Recover the amino acids of this structure.
């Protein structure tokens, strides 16, 4: 995580699913002077975050539970339609990363990739930046590569 932060100078975070939320476990760096949407040990609805989408894309059980609980609107840009979310998650599985544009907090955008051990997404890694200057698609290869390396290192233990 520290290496990804040093390479990108963007807030780097690690989280896991906790029922229908993402639980933020660790953070490297800061987002300038701007308050971020996710305090360490804080929770945000999974459907509103790139990390949550990266994890939901790999767990039909968690996705069904999230949809049954109702999709939360954190901002006017949050996805609240189960069909739209499901469609986006198909794309996430195909490309290996998820993007969130101001769905958890206006002004912030994020890209995340799952950390996979034994064919199971156990956590996700993300980069966050200001919506007006951060291109999550451009940052995606670095996030995917770091998540893959973390997956391999953890699987080897």
């Amino acid at each position: 995580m520290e290496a990804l932060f040093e390479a990108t100078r963007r807030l780097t975070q690690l989280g896991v699913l906790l029922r229908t939320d993402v639980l933020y476990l660790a953070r490297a760096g800061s987002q300038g002077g701007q308050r971020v949407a996710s305090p360490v040990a804080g929770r945000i609805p999974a459907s509103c975050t790139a990390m949550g989408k990266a994890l939901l894309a790999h767990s039909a059980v968690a996705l069904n539970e999230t949809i049954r609980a109702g999709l939360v609107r954190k901002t006017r840009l949050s996805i609240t339609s189960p069909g739209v979310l499901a469609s986006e998650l198909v794309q996430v599985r195909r490309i290996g990363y998820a993007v969130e544009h101001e769905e958890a907090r206006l002004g912030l955008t994020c890209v995340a990739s799952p950390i996979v051990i034994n064919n199971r997404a156990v956590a996700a890694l993300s980069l966050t930046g200001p919506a007006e200057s951060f291109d999550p698609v451009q940052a995606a290869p670095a996030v995917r590569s770091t998540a893959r390396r973390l997956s391999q290192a953890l699987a080897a233990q």
